[in-house]
Amino acid sequence: MWIVFLGPPGAGKGTQSKRLVEYLKFPQLSTGEMLRAAKTAGSPLGRLASQYMDGGRLVPDPVVMSIVGERLDQADCARGCLFDGFPRTLGQARALDELLDSRGFKLDLAVELRADEPELVRRMLKRAADERRADDNPSTIAQRMEVYHRQTSPLIHYYQQRGVHVAVDAMRTPEQVFSDIRGCVDRCAGAGAL
Ligand code: AMP
Fold it and tell me: Which one of 24, 121, 122, 133 is least enclosed by Cβ atoms within 10 Å?
């Protein structure tokens, strides 16, 4: 089963995809985490990525697609995976479709987490205090919101047209949100996606 998590920064994509990973026993592919690991390792890719990440901008599609393509070639991704924070542009969404198609698969579900902007900002400022993420500061948060609306939100329409989009109200507790997501996944699996 192949699932994409969509939603603005702070909507809970990371938290919810970790829960779903435990439930489905599929790997989670978080481009944000992979890029942060490359940055910490100080690799050339990490140094390139940090120029974009630290300002709240998107890392260029070819860089992102190269790390995703490599990850999908690993054995644990043979039956499916959860994409968290990817795709973030229409170019990445189309490239993902091609990658899956070339492996004989197709995307099963795009789960959009919806939340109001003041709540998202409150969550990110809390995360800044808890996790010390370099890009969770007020000016970068505003930039990431703008990038989401301009570059990533068109994916909602893209996946609606494909008939794989579901929206979940992410303004509730993590348990309530997960319960809805699990319901969507179970219905999708019941329709033969697993
Ligand atoms: P995240 O942890 O998903 O919020 O990602 C943190 C930062 O990493 C983003 O603000 C981007 O700079 C970069 N990033 C993560 N995933 C992608 C992606 N799919 N495409 C481009 N940039 C990304």
Answer: 122
Q: Which pTM was predicted?
A: 0.91
Fold of 2-185: Rossmann fold (3.40.50)
Query: How many CA atoms lie within 13 Å of 50's alpha carbon, on the beta-carbon side?
Result: 14
Is ligand 1 within 6 A of the CB of residue 136? no
127 a catalytic residue = yes
Q: Which of these is catalytic: 18, 19, 114, 127? A: 127
Per-residue pLDDT tens over the stretch 21-69: 999 999 999 999 999 999 999 999 999 999 999 888 999 999 999 999 9
Give the start-to-end residue ranges of the domains of the chain.
2-185
* Residue 109 and residue 39 in contact, taking contact as beta carbons nearer than 8 Å: no
How much distance in Å is there from the Cα of 75 to the middle of ligand 1?
24
